[in-house]
Design brief:
Length: 151
Amino acid sequence: MRDDLTELETVISVLHNAVHAFQDVHKPKGQWYHPASFGKEMAQWGLNVNKNGDIVSIDPDTFSEVLERIGRGSIRSELLDFEPVEATDITTTSPSAAEYVTKANITKAKATVNKMKKWSCACNPPINVRCAVNLTAYCTECNADFEKMEA
């Protein structure tokens, strides 16, 4: 966890990660990150999340009860000032320099480049294979070496 979080943000972060831990242990592996069940579980703690798992709102009644149960009722007043933010990347000169967080522009990740190269033999039609490294092999049909094809 980041070391620049307020006490309230730390509690929220711990609950968020506790729900992840619960799902990692008790849910099918293909569904553990932020499926609808994650949002439902977070809502039971008074934390409403979007499909990315970011807090979009807090149910003050439910979350105040949670704070009381975990011995942190003294920070309920921080709920009034809490503004949920959607951030994908926070860049600061040092962790202590982050006094506040601004909303980051969210962009889709670029597709990864396929590192597999196409190699073909002299058969008609050619037999194609893909390999990420240099290939030293020959076709057992035409006895020709596989040649790297240009993209």
